[in-house]
């Protein structure tokens, strides 16, 4: 594999770039694993779909933190630049982790709209009963697509000094996933956002709001915060790319923009656990119960 244009070395020379990002990602891994443990501890008998989605988001956050830590690994970079098989495998892992997170968030968005718009059909729906099957199906299709793309185009990859393997410069890469996938999901999420906010307004205008409605509303607001924060953090990426492509941009500015981008993405991995813990009273009670050996009602964590 060759170095990308403008890159001078395989490994990143500016080591200060790595320490805070790897520290945040390490915290993200530990926090999300604890987060999953707390939810599983609180839902020993029955795990509702909302908890399954929260667990799935945390799993993708753990994988994404690992992805970001391996992205700047000098040992891994020396391996992928020497062997095309290692380069293809690394690119497949990097892409699948990124795509799996947005797939889970899309299903979470649909779930929140569904429970608001079709409350009486929700519990018996195919989506609720076969959620893991839907998730596995979408991830399997994306795995096939990404694997075919990277195997066919691995010889055209290049290694960027800061951003790692660049795999979207080929016609196949651009046609299969690189440029259409996120815009399509952004439009889909915007539609879900409008529909979900409309359903929340209808719930707010009801004469009687039950305790279950309050739980559903709080869970929905939690998912909305996580998804809006996702796009807020990742909007730095196209800005960074535009700065790098602009002639005359100094190396220090490019490095700073990439540092901000990776730091925001890394911090986003912590957001799910923090927002869920802040918004869910039952979660905080569960943490206290683990520390103080008291019991908490599972219903308080339901949505």
TrEMBL record:
Example of a GO cellular component annotation carried by this entry: plasma membrane
Ranges where the G-protein coupled receptors family 1 profile domain occurs: 31-276
Main location: membrane
Species classification: Eukaryota, Metazoa, Spiralia, Lophotrochozoa, Bryozoa
The UniProt record lists the keyword Zinc: no
Entry keywords, A to Z: Cell membrane, G-protein coupled receptor, Membrane, Receptor, Transducer, Transmembrane, Transmembrane helix
Transmembrane parts of this sequence: 16-41, 126-146, 179-198, 219-239, 259-279
Protein name as it appears in the record: G-protein coupled receptors family 1 profile domain-containing protein
Membrane topology designation: Multi-pass membrane protein
Biological source species: Bugula neritina
GO MF terms held by the record: G protein-coupled receptor activity
């Amino acid at each position: 594999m060759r170095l990308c244009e403008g890159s001078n070395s395989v490994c990143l020379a500016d080591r200060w770039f790595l320490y805070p990002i790897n520290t945040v990602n390490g915290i993200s891994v530990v926090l999300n694993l604890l987060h999953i443990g707390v939810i599983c501890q609180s839902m020993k008998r029955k795990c509702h779909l909302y908890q399954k989605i929260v667990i799935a988001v945390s799993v993708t956050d753990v994988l994404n933190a690992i992805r970001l830590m391996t992205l700047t690994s000098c040992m891994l970079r020396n391996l992928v630049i020497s062997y095309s098989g290692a380069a293809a495998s690394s690119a497949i892992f990097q892409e699948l982790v990124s795509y799996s997170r947005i797939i889970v968030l899309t299903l979470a968005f649909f779930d929140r709209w569904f429970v608001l718009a079709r409350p009486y059909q929700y519990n018996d729906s195919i989506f609720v009963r076969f959620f893991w099957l839907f998730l596995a199906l979408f991830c399997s299709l994306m795995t096939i697509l990404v694997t075919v793309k990277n195997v066919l185009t691995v010889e055209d990859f290049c290694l960027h000094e800061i951003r790692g393997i660049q795999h979207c410069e080929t016609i196949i890469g651009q046609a299969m996933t690189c440029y259409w996938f996120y815009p399509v999901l952004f439009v889909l999420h915007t539609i879900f956002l409008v529909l979900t906010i409309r359903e929340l307004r209808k719930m707010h205008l009801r004469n009687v709001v039950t305790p279950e409605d309050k739980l559903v509303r709080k869970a929905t607001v939690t998912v909305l915060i996580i998804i809006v924060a996702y796009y807020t953090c990742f909007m730095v990426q196209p800005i960074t790319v535009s700065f790098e492509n602009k002639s005359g941009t100094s190396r220090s500015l490019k490095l700073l923009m990439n540092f901000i981008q990776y730091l925001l993405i890394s911090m986003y991995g912590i957001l799910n656990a923090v927002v869920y813990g802040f918004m869910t009273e039952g979660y905080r009670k569960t943490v206290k119960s683990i520390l103080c050996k008291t019991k908490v009602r599972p219903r308080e964590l339901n949505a």
